[in-house]
Amino acid sequence: MKVAFLSTFALDANISLINALKEKYDIYFFTEALYKIYNFIDGSQLKKTITKGDKVEVLLRFGNLISLDKTFVIKGTRNSNVFKKLLISYRIHQELKKINPDVIMIDNYMLTYFLTTLSWRKKMLMIVHDPFLHSGENFPIDRYLRKIHFKLIPHKILLNTNQKSNFIRYYGEDPSKVFTSFLSVYDYLRYYVSESYQQENSGKFNVLFFGRISPYKGIKYLLDGFIKIINAGMYDNISLTIAGSGEFDFDINPYKNYSQITILNQFITPSDLADLISQSSVVVCPYTDATQSGVVMSAFAFRKPVIATNVGGLPEMVEDRKTGIIIEPKSSECIYTTLSELYLNRDLLEEMAQNIENTYFSGEKSWRNSAGQFMNAIEKLNTL
Q1: Are residues 337 and 374 in the same domain?
Q2: 83 exposed, middle or buried (CB, 10 Å; 0-12, 13-18, 19+)?
Q3: Separation in Å, CA 194 to CA 25, 266, 274
Q4: How do residues 281-316 score in pLDDT, each as one tens digit?
Q5: What backbone torsions phi and psi does residue 70 show, to the nearest 5 degrees?
Q6: Domain that holds residue 240
Q7: Residue 14 belongs to a domain with what CATH number?
Q8: CA–CA gap between residue 127 and residue 160 (Å, rounded)
Q9: Prediction pTM value
């Protein structure tokens, strides 16, 4: 069976999912080089509207995960440039007609694949990364395009089960056409670890937050909780790194006065991110609302436990006191007490790291099992 996967992302979860799906299906992968933060591909370097994956240097290292000769990189443009966007959409549609896929998976609601969506909508499976838009990111254009695509594409798959019933009720979806799966570890990051990197066993305790800076991320609660640790004066060799691009919704300057806090407010390359995670002791997701999180799966790729708040699908991803610790949102006190506990109990950290490996690398939360749930949905669409 031929399956086309239309994406605005390239790395993160997608190449691992494709690697698992290609054991059964003939997978054709389309990704758009538009925002470098999404897939680390510089669209300005592309000479053609559509370039084969084996001609894109960034993707060459992943040749054992995805079929580069069946990967297509689109030189993207913003939605505001409607006519150019629709022309690109037409060219993609013509390419897909040559492939003639049996089923199409799509993970976005941009205009890039709009003509294909109109033609193949009944054979499409839409991956809904965010069942509900995040606070502070509920923009009119997103709501509009989302509404159109949700109406056009009847079959959808969520990446957590916690939000399925609310999603069906809120959007008036047909329950028989809404599927679920889950994210597993982001394998691609392990391809970026510096050769010179050596895991240190020096007793250092490095706390890490990484990802796009946005109001719903709850970064201030993490910073305030960490300052309580500093002020306690009982914890040596402890540090906090905040890494990611975007604008803070509060005054960050007072926190820069603490030598134990490093703020990297910039685009983080995959190689830098891989090293940051490798050198961390624990990753914190202090979100005030959430769906699922690629941050968790990036941390788990390096066996790093995660402290996450009890919002959205995070408790489904982080098993409390097995692969991390679940805390209440908007609580600097919870962050303080949890970091203090893990600092003093390194055995618990190592136990959780081993649980991550057992569960996600070869166990029930592996990509093979995640892909199995995608296959159930794909097989149902192929019978229509």
Answers
A1: no
A2: exposed
A3: 33, 20, 8
A4: 999 999 998 777 889 999 999 999 999 999 988 998
A5: -115, 20
A6: 188-361
A7: 3.40.50.2000
A8: 11
A9: 0.85
